[in-house]
Amino acid sequence: MPRKPHKKSRRGCKDCKRRHIKCDENRPVCVNCVTAGLQCAFFGEQQTLLSNDEATIVGSPGTSGSGSSTRNSGQCVGEGWRPQASHVPPPSPPPFSPAQQLHSPLNTTDPGLNLDYLELLHHFSTVTYQTLTPDPAQQQIWQLTAIQLSLSFPFLMHEILAIAALHLAQCRPERRSHYYTKATELQSHALNEFKQVREHVEASNCGAILIFACLLALHVLADPPRRQGLNFSDYLDHFLGCINLLRGVRHMVISDWWSYLYESELKPLLAVEEPEKPYNIPDECRDLAELTTNSDLGPTSIKAYDVAIERLQWNFAASALGEGTSSTIRFVMAWPVQLKDDYFELLNERRPEALIILAYYGALLHFYRASWAIGDSGAFLIRAVGAHTGPHWGRWMAWPDRVLKESSNVA
Fold first, then answer.
1. Could you say which DSSP state residue 143 is in?
2. Which ranges of 94-175 would DSSP assign to H, the alpha helix?
3. What are the residues facing 301 on neighbouring strands?
4. Which of 73, 105, 360, 362 is packed most tightly, with the most Cβ within 10 A?
5. How far apart are CA 172 and CA 183, in angstroms?
6. Within 10 A of 232 (CB to CB), how many other CB atoms are there?
7. What is the DSSP string of 54-74?
């Protein structure tokens, strides 16, 4: 199947060439290596390294406990990271390492100083925000605007801290249980506080609610403990819950406050350059439009499926990944937000055509598997749909299954 044509990177870094992904050639460290927590080196140039102490502060990328496809992209950029100049002699080692100094608990009697929260906020504002989008304008929103809003809305602050805890659980596997517990506690606080404002959306809080709803859905999707021990049927229930949270973004905020938000400082989150038609997408995704032809479906179901398929094709085109991968989550949530009620009802009824469309969304998720927040979610979703639909729908499941097989062969 032909790949999406793109301008080849002739001067990309070594790791991007090894991983067969396009390098942005940003020096001294490219964006791909930043988000993947890799040491970046360009051909003919000195390698940019992390010092031993800095590497200790960063922590090793997290790994999943089981399965062949894991959430192994912790994407942790070192807090306080800096290039190591070749002409500067290394400093004499201190009595104990900076990592020990930074990670040693401080004795404080100030009840108002929560060092755990400060650690999480620092991590989100220096590391996690970079993993949400490659776009600089959107990164500024996550790094600055979201945190500024959270100072006025505790439910948003607690969810930001919860996302940071989930990310740190991937970055620091030796403390994974601690951070997962923190993430759950913080999310509980956020939800309890959000109950007080969810029925009173207005100009003063709609921006905070928009960001909160997006992070909340991401939390449910990215939290491995939530799906431990789930069979395929239960996982479908879990995933549809994630989709429903994202659909709530439209119902609570976007439908009534779109014009207001579009003129606000959150505009970069909402402004998407429309992809040209015909969409440059995989042929199999284009052929999905044939799913409703020559069928005995009623006109209402056909319309629901056709709209869902067109929006999914748009999502593929807007992502502009071809069959490559992304280490951020920028366009992952675009399709669920746009889903109509009639299609979601068909999903809840486990109609096979609705599930087939969902499997193709799983393929899109799989192209985002390099993100710490996505990992093997797409692969698990495809397998769950395949187990539910059975061999009768094998023709339509062939491409999502092949996407998984080919990625496993590359790995």
1. I
2. 98-103, 115-126, 136-140, 146-150, 154-171
3. none
4. 360
5. 14
6. 14
7. HHHHH-PPP--SSSSS-----
| pTM, rounded to two decimals | 0.72
Whether 401 contacts 386, CB under 8 Å: yes
Cis amide linkage into residue 28, ω under 30° from 0: yes
Task: Give the torsion sign (CA, 231, 237, 240, 244).
Answer: negative
Q: Do 154 and 114 touch, CB atoms closer than 8 A? A: no
- What does the block give as tokens for 153? 């809305």
One-character DSSP codes across 2-36: PPPP----TT-BHHHHHHT------SSS-HHHHHH
Residue-wise pLDDT tens digits, 137-187:
999 999 999 999 999 999 999 999 999 999 999 999 999 999 999 999 999
- Measured between its terminal Cα atoms, the distance across the chain in Å is 19
Going 21 to 399 to 133 to 235, the CA torsion angle's sign is negative
The mean pLDDT of 219-230, rounded to a whole number, is: 82
Q: How many CB atoms sit inside 10 A of residue 327's CB?
A: 24
Contact between 207 and 264 (Cβ < 8 Å): yes
Amino acid present at 214: C
- Spatial separation of the C-alpha atoms in residues 312 and 364, rounded to whole Å: 9
A 10 A CB-CB count for 70 gives: 16
Residues 157 and 234: their CA atoms lie apart, in Å, by 30
- What pLDDT, in 10s, does the model give residues 356-391? 999 999 999 999 999 999 999 999 999 999 999 999
Residue 320: phi and psi, rounded to 5, are 55, 40
Name residue 339's amino acid. L
